[in-house]
Amino acid sequence: MKRLLVLALVLVFTLTNVGCGSIMGQLRKIADEQNQEDSSTTTEAETTESTEEVTEATDTEESEDDVKPTQELVVEGAPLIHDFELSGDLSDSITPGTELVIHPNTGNNRFIDGVWQWTADQHPGGGLILLTDQISNPENYSIGFRIKFNDVGPSWKKILSFREESVDGGLYFSDGKLQLYPFNVDENITYSANTFYDFILSREANKMMTVYVVQDDGSITKVYEEQDLRDESVPVLVDGKYQFMFFTDDYSTTAEWTTGGSVDSIRLWNGSIDEVRFD
Ligand SMILES: [Ca+2]
Ligand SMILES: [Ca+2]
Questions:
Q1: 41 compared with 113, residue with greater pLDDT
Q2: CB under 8 Å to 248, separation ≥6 — which residues?
């Protein structure tokens, strides 16, 4: 959309110099409509994404690990309320925001090339904790994260917990596949270790849980669409805040954690989303 506007402006400028009045007027209209459309549909999320895009464009030392699809990933339907870029700290790009917490069992960890990297050598593994009091309704939210794991098997490696630490449910890699437990394993995609995947989970108040996987080849795959009738994906309330626990296992099992990995970003939207696409 932005590219179209720039193209239109370049054409307007060119045509001004050759004196094509009526065509120029048409192009101005297109540009104005574009502006109106932009301002009417610009959400907080899109504003933030624009800022991020500018930052990335000026970053000339982007490492191989940080390479993303050239098109911009657009997520529509709910405002973005947390955006952790993990470029050197655990802070939130969105105000008032919050700060991620490093799980106390995490081994070595550091920020490098725009990601947070960690290791773990004992149960329940290591990772990050997101606590938020900014979700209007815990049954209606979306969460996204771009991660790579050292291990996507054998058996299960937990990615995300919604409930208490005693609960086995949550999102896992399972023998190189994905499983939103207690739902069945999804067979759509075979995952590799040491490879980035962007996951977006969206929960509607009517209990529909949808999971998208965005791969670095630019593909977007809807891998789950399930009725979460037992509210297993509703985040647990801990000291007045809703908790999402990343990368550590629960205490229902003892070996379902990865020995380490990297996380490039974590995002939370205040509501379910309608669409994930590249622009
Ligand atoms: Ca488990
Ligand atoms: Ca990042």
A1: 113
A2: 103, 105, 120, 124, 125, 126, 127, 158, 161, 257
Distance CA 270, CA 273 (A): 9
Q: Please give the full DSSP string across 230-271, using - where no structure is assigned.
A: T-TTSPEEETTEEEEEES---SS-SS---SEEEEEEEEEESS
pLDDT band at 57 (very low <50, low <70, confident <90, very high): very low
Q: How far is the CA of 94 from the centre of ligand 2 (A)?
A: 14
Ligand number with the minimum distance to the CA of 87:
2
Residue with tokens 């000291």, as numbered in its chain = 239
Tokens of 58: 């000026």
Q: With beta carbons less than 8 A apart as the criterion, state whether 222 and 210 touch.
A: yes
Token output for 183 = 């739902």
The environment of the single-atom ion ligand 2, i.e. residues with CB closer than 5 A, is 85-86, 114, 264-265
Per-residue pLDDT, 71: 81
Mean pLDDT of 28-50: 43
25 alpha carbon to ligand 1 midpoint, in Å? 62
Comparing 46-55, 149-158, 202-211, the range with the smallest average pLDDT is: 46-55
Q: Alpha helices of 109-200 — where are they, by DSSP H?
A: none
Which pTM was predicted? 0.76
* Residue in 268, 276, 236, 270 with CA at minimum distance from that of residue 100: 268
Task: Calculate how far, in angstroms, residue 65's C-alpha sits from the geometric centre of ligand 2.
Answer: 10
pLDDT level of residue 268 (50, 70, 90 thresholds): very high
Specify the pLDDT at position 39. Answer: 43
